[in-house]
Amino acid sequence: MLTRRTFLKSTAALSVAPLVYTRTRAADKSPDALKLGFIGVGTMGRGHLGGFLGRKEVEVVAISDVVKERQEVAVSMVEKRYADRIKSGSFKGVKGYSDFRDLLKVDGLDAVVIATPDHWHAIPSVLAARAGKHIYCEKPLTQNLADGRWIIGEVAKAKVIFQTGSQQRSEFGGHFRKAVEYVWNGRIGKLKTIRIGVGEAAVPCDLPTQEIPIGTDWDTWLGPAPERGYNEILCPKGIHQGFPQWRKYQEYGGGQIADMGAHHFDIAQWAMKMDASGPVEIIPPTDPKKTSGLKFVYASGVVMIHNEFEGNVKADCVFEGTEGKILVSRGGISSLPDTILKEPLAENAERVYPSSDHKKNWLDCILSGKPTICPPETGHRSASICHLGNIGYRLDRTLTWDPVKEQFVDDEKANKELIREPRAKWKI
After folding, report:
1. Domain for residue 144, yes or no?
2. Which of 65, 67, 149, 425 qualifies as a FRET site for 184, CA 20 to 30 Å off?
3. Residue-level pLDDT at 238
């Protein structure tokens, strides 16, 4: 098992053990439904909760959140939905917890959905795997690179089914899937450059301390992160709309380069067939004040550039080849010249993993024992691009990366950036 302490002395394991789930279920029978718990029910967590509540394959039985009001509202949301379903006018039986470790002890619990801030992905994933629970964990997979390899080792050891929340592989009109297939099948010739349109890297947190709201367990919200005072920008009071700005700060997330970047870099890695690898060089822009233009260079010669485009050719992902370009975003796909996309791919063309519903893919794989469309190795490698980009901007110098050993080559200072020791009370 790879731990934080052994990470920098270890090589990356590029394969995982077969995942087998032997329990037989009948999707149309409530007693046999997959018993599901939710860890984190902020904006994203409540969205996932609503998405799973309408599925007959699952029954939500437990909720965990460090803010009591969110926990209680989510429990009520589940009870109302199930009361309406059984037409009895009432339903009880959903348990709420402030500590996710208590949730993991719920009798009969089969699986968990983790939608916490990034710095709280690794420990719940590891403890859930050790408890034998299947896991759906939001992207980016981790706050630091070493924790990703830790998750992979624990999931493989436990033989549970894991899905990273990289929903662009399955959803959003299939535009990203089509782009990848057209790149794979040579429609733009030889791939040369990829341009990814996402925001800036993370910055250190400098927010002032505010009074902790009643019902908020601030110390647990911090968890493995460095100790500091409460601020509502990090953990909004009560039930909030929109996405909190903890993402901006490197203690908890990876900035926009890791937030939406975890989606768009993931598609780029997929298109390059780099789901189990990564770049070999990270080159920051020559102007240290510049917040875009960092380059990831791959052994194939492909160069991926962060948020730097030519002219008006801009999209979430732009694939440039010797014979044209494909531009893809959540809202659509286009090409230059437009003839690239007009002709359908041949019947025998190379196709991506079939999935049009990310949540269903996870549930189906729990039943079948097959790997999901975005297992932890894939989620880790995509998150690693975000981490490498943040490190490149912070250190402001060219870095040589070994994607097999997952270390910077002969660079002790850079390698220290790959790992963060948690606060003492959260050392697992």
Report:
1. yes
2. 149
3. 87
Q: How many structural domains does the chain have?
A: 1
Using the CB atoms, write b or e for 349-368: b if 16+ within 10 Å: eeebeebeebbebbbbbbee
**pLDDT tens, residue by residue, 380-410:** 999 999 999 999 999 999 999 999 999 999 9
The 10s digit of each residue's pLDDT in 304-340 is 999 999 988 899 999 999 999 999 999 999 999 999 9
Q: Report pLDDT for 87.
A: 66
Owning domain of residue 33: 12-169+358-375
- Looking at the domain assignment, is residue 301 inside a domain? no
Q: Confirm whether 391 is domain-assigned.
A: no
Check: pTM over 0.70? Answer yes or no: yes
CATH code (residue 86): 3.40.50.720
Range with the poorest average pLDDT among 87-101, 150-164, 240-254, 302-316: 87-101
Establish if 340 belongs to a structural domain. no
Structure tokens at 50: 């609503």
